[in-house]
Design goal:
heterodimer, A: about 625 residues, four-stranded parallel β-sheet, 22 helices, B: Alpha-Beta Plaits, 5 helices, binds iron/sulfur cluster
């Protein structure tokens, strides 16, 4: 604690909360929060989630970091979320700075301000929140006055291409935060005690594995404006390698989970059954950056589930991971959890399903998604394209999953696809409609069969949701230029024309403009910082909330910064090009990613190394780690 | 067996809606592992019920709730266990056993007593007091009530207030629950305040009562 902090509780209670919509979302002190003494803390940290409380509190990473830091008696961490627009307006009117939820401390009084980067379209919110906190936005503007301003740091999936945000942050944490976060706090307190300057601290931090200090890396561009290389200060590592937790069984996990007062999006107790997914879908960034697979043992999970449920009083337990149906002991674990808790009225849920009958069987066993809707993600409409993107799903899997769902009594199925994928043709898009027709036909024959045993059935309804593909850094598709807006528009129209005559199917497509901007930033470089600054000044925020997204302002911001957004989104990188995120090392080799990109061109599949030999993605040797699968039997 | 408990809610928790509070109690019951009775049916829920909802932003000094248990337990034990499972700014302060067939709180309670502590400079406070005196003397005081997605409605504020009294800067208000809908204390307070003052008061519901035709009152 290097600053005394005034609590703004009185102002918040009397001048803000009586006048805002849904005040319950701004209340700290929820059950299972920890009480810490500001005066006693060696270092204080504010953790910012750049979206509303209902989204931020649904996020497991936020809860894990809260636990990891507060577990250390000498550190204090408080949570901060984005105020809704009515709240923000009042705060600005009354000159009340952005505060922490836990004790209404001003964000600017913390030693460290950490921001979680979950999706590109929250970037404008980050700048808005820093501004509302009264902090200079640019790291350079905070550096002049020594330690007057907090250190502003960031981590999370978007830190794997930190460049568009590089101007705003003092440092980035690459990879999983459990270990490195406390190390950073240790280093911070050590340096402050030793009387080191901000500058000296940043040089020391750069030597910490997993820490990227952008000011020590300066991009050099060619004359035609392409990135040539990074000029790196001698004491900074050439590449910053991600951090990871080797053994999830012993990793700290928040069992006493905070129970929000307000309704949040995922309002339930959770266990994290594993981390990582090696299925290798070529569009998927999570499948690369969270490698390798680290499963927890069923015994550990059973204990954590029991503790989380009693500590929270929730009656729902979510089994979280990228692909829970792939967990080695998923079926016995579910049986065990149901045996342990269903008598108490607890239900168990899976966040996502694999497209096959087995997964649907699991969902049926859980009975949670109560015959409302079942969600399946075949991602592409034809086998050829599914092989290109390495989505290991074939037509039989899809139909078997649908059959299983119909048998179990679902009559609403949601299907997720992407459009604008590499090597996609119009036939692939028509394939989506074709698949929809076939699935509806299955539903009809089922209904006809049911008629015979005289049970009236509601006809099958399907919703087809199409997202426009955004290429992401550190994936085999990172070299691919996004389809232009006109091309996506044409594809959108084609899809709607195809679906016009399909009765029982509803088509919805994501926003093209939003996908385009996401595409600009996901593979963007440092020059985009100027655009973000301009967009912030024009008032952009909450871009992922339809009612707030202001595309024209974004275009104006690009214009002001003299940058053509299409050049960024549509840029096809060559093999020899220096990628803006080249100095960030996710452990999976660039060579392997390129091989995957070439295999995609040949529609050649790559198997999950869970099912076969190592296919050489490089992470295990690079990080000295290995896939950890749990024993397939569960102790009775 | 049935338990009636008295609880207090203050601090920022006064901003919870009735529904938020219901959810909170349901989870606290599970955390406290009390042998709560559940309703029958497809979607069983714990048998807990409350008095009339309190407005968002009001503190509660003597709020009431009923709880049904499957197994007998000392009311004090219920209170202790519940308190361990409640967040700060919310606490049970009394509990007693009641008959299983005791009338529901919602059905019985017909009077709420409020206290509003004004935070105003003396001149403004004097103006409020004058206006309150005129209000008390009037036969009718009509205001337009704004209703979301409905037409504004004319209501008689004066008819909705049974009694008012000052103690220094605190106004005590008695508002009966009328079948046709009762007035909200905030409506009275806003009427008394000069425009532009915002919510320059701290409002608490201090008691809930059963009032008989001869004006005798008791706490249920
Ligand atoms: S299954 Fe595919 S899309 Fe899902 S997390 Fe794994 S790699 Fe990503
Ligand atoms: S290095 Fe080999 S074994 Fe390890 S995750 Fe990659 S493909 Fe699998």
């Amino acid at each position: 604690m290097y600053k005394t902090a005034k609590s703004w509780a009185a102002e918040v209670e009397s001048q803000l909360l009586p006048y805002v919509d849904k005040p319950a979302q701004y209340l700290g002190g929820e059950y299972n929060t920890v009480e810490k003494d500001w005066q006693q803390a060696a270092a204080t940290m504010a953790l910012l989630f750049p979206d509303l409380y209902e989204i931020g509190m649904s996020h497991l990473g936020m809860r894990i970091l809260y636990e990891v830091v507060n577990k250390r008696p000498e550190y204090l961490l408080e949570r901060v979320f984005a105020p809704a627009t009515d709240m923000e307006k009042l705060m600005r009117e009354k000159h009340i700075p952005l505060f922490s939820w836990d004790n209404y401390h001003a964000v600017r009084d913390f030693d460290i301000v950490g921001v979680t980067l979950q999706y590109e379209m929250s970037f404008s919110n980050i700048l808005n929140m820093l501004d509302l906190a009264g902090l200079p936005l640019l790291a350079a503007d905070r550096a002049g006055d020594g330690w007057q301003w907090p250190l502003v740091v960031a981590g999370g999936p978007c830190a794997y291409n930190p460049e568009p945000l590089a101007d705003f942050f003092d440092l980035f944490i690459i990879g999983e935060g459990e270990d490195v976060e406390p190390e950073l706090l240790d280093l911070y307190t050590e340096c402050r005690r030793a009387g080191l300057s901000r500058e000296q601290f940043l040089h020391r931090a750069a030597a910490l594995p997993g820490i990227y200090v952008p000011q020590l890396y300066q991009p050099v561009y060619t004359e035609d404006g392409r990135l040539k290389a990074m000029q790196i200060e001698p004491d900074a590592p050439a590449r910053v390698q991600k951090r990871l937790v080797q053994d999830m069984n012993t990793a700290l996990f928040p069992e006493c989970q905070i129970v929000p007062f307000a309704q949040i999006v995922h309002d339930r107790a959770v266990i994290e059954v594993m981390r990582g997914c090696n299925r290798g879908c070529r569009f998927c960034q999570a499948g690369i950056i969270y490698r390798p697979v680290r499963e927890k043992s069923p015994e550990v999970l059973r204990a954590q589930a029991a503790k989380a449920l009693t500590a929270t009083g929730y009656d729902e337990l979510g089994m979280i991971s990228l692909s829970t149906a792939d967990y080695s002991c998923v079926s016995p674990l579910i049986d065990q959890l149901l045996a342990d808790h269903s008598a108490d009225g607890v239900s168990v849920s899976l966040p996502s399903l694999r497209v096959d009958a087995v997964s649907v069987g699991l969902a049926d066993k859980l009975q949670t998604v109560r015959k409302g809707g079942l969600t399946l993600a075949p991602e592409a409409g034809t086998q050829r394209l599914r092989d290109i993107i390495n989505k290991g799903v074939n037509e039989e899997d899809i139909f078997a999953a649908v059959q299983a769902a119909l048998t179990a009594g679902w009559n609403t199925i949601k299907l997720y696809f992407m459009a604008g994928l590499p090597y996609e043709t119009d036939d692939d898009l028509r394939g989506i409609a074709q698949l929809a027709r076939q699935i509806l036909a299955l539903g009809r024959s089922r209904a006809a069969a049911a008629d015979m045993d005289a049970k009236p059935r509601r006809p099958l309804n399907i919703t087809v949701s199409v997202a426009f593909f955004v290429p992401k850094a550190h994936t085999p598709f990172q070299w691919f230029g996004q389809n232009s807006r006109t091309e996506l528009q044409r594809k959108r129209e084609l899809l709607f024309a195809e679906f016009k005559d399909i009765r029982g199917a509803r088509l919805n497509c994501h926003d093209i403009e939003l996908s385009f901007l996401e595409g600009v930033f996901s593979r963007g470089d440092r020059r985009l910082g100027q655009v973000l600054l301009a967009a912030h000044k024009l008032g952009c925020k909450f871009d992922s909330w339809h009612e707030h997204f202001a595309y024209d302002k974004w275009l104006q911001a690009f214009d002001q910064a003299g940058i053509d957004p299409a050049e960024y989104a549509e840029r096809q990188f060559a093999q020899e090009d220096c990628l803006p995120w080249e100095h960030i090392d996710c452990g999976v080799s660039k060579k392997w990613l390129w091989q995957e990109w070439e295999k995609a061109a040949r529609a050649e599949k790559t198997l999950d190394c869970r099912q076969g030999p190592c296919n050489g993605c490089g992470i295990c040797p690079a990080l000295g780690c290995e896939n950890r699968y749990c024993e397939s039997e569960v102790a009775e | 067996m049935s338990i009636r408990f008295v609880y207090q809610v203050d601090g920022v928790l006064k901003f919870l809606s009735h529904l938020d509070l219901l959810k909170l109690f349901n989870r606290a019951l599970l955390r406290a592992s009390l042998p709560v009775a559940y309703s029958e049916g497809f979607n069983p829920h714990p048998k807990i019920s409350f008095g009339p909802p309190r407005g968002v932003g009001q503190e509660g000094r003597r709020e009431l709730g009923d709880l049904q248990l499957k197994e007998p337990l000392q009311p004090e034990v219920v209170m202790q266990r519940l308190n361990l499972a409640l967040p700060k700014n919310l606490r049970v302060v009394a509990a007693k056993e009641i008959a299983d067939d005791a009338p529901a709180l919602m059905a019985e309670i017909n009077l709420a007593v409020y206290e509003a502590e004004f935070i105003l400079e003396p001149a403004l406070l004097a103006a409020v007091k004058d206006k309150a005196a005129a209000f008390w003397a009037a036969d009718r005081v009509e205001i337009l009530r704004k209703r979301p997605k409905k037409r504004d409605k004319m209501i008689d504020l004066r008819a909705g207030v049974q009694y008012l009294e000052w103690q220094d800067n605190t106004l005590c208000l008695e508002i009966p629950f009328a079948e046709t809908g009762s007035v909200k204390p905030a409506e009275v307070l806003q009427y008394l305040l000069p425009p532009g003052c915002g919510a320059a008061y701290r409002l608490a519901r201090v008691g809930l009562f059963v009032q008989s035709a001869d004006n005798q009152r008791r706490e249920p």
